[in-house]
Amino acid sequence: MSKVPAELKYAKSHEWVKPLPDGSVLVGITDYAQQSLGDLVFVEVPKTGRKLAAGEACAVVESVKAASDVYAPLAGEVTDANPKLADAPETLNADPYGAGWLWKLKPANPADVDGLLDAAGYEKVLADL
Q1: Which of 22, 52, 91, 92 has the fewest Cβ atoms nearer than 10 Å?
Q2: How far apart are CA 116 and CA 122, in angstroms?
Q3: How far apart are CA 1 and CA 11, in angstroms?
Q4: Which residue blocks in 1-129 are alpha helix, DSSP H?
Q5: Is the pLDDT of residue 1 over 90?
């Protein structure tokens, strides 16, 4: 059973969003996503300053089994990228909701966060897989 923290928001494409006090959000991939991929060997995240459209493929996570795109759950500008992942992609497997965050985003429209799935909604998506 995958972990689905209640305080986060989710996209159907298996990204999570954590709202921060300054109005920005952290973005990562869910426990389900990292389990499905297996041991990650490479992570590429969007560069700081990049403007993303909601649903845009903007990052790549690669395991020994497959490479997978990661999609922007919200439109906005990347304000930071997790520097640890280039040297330690396995961080995503070990701690997908903590140290394994991918990028920080300043949402173009902060209200869009409310349009994402809550934990119960994401659990329904997982149940239908």
Answers
A1: 22
A2: 9
A3: 18
A4: 31-37, 84-87, 91-94, 119-127
A5: no
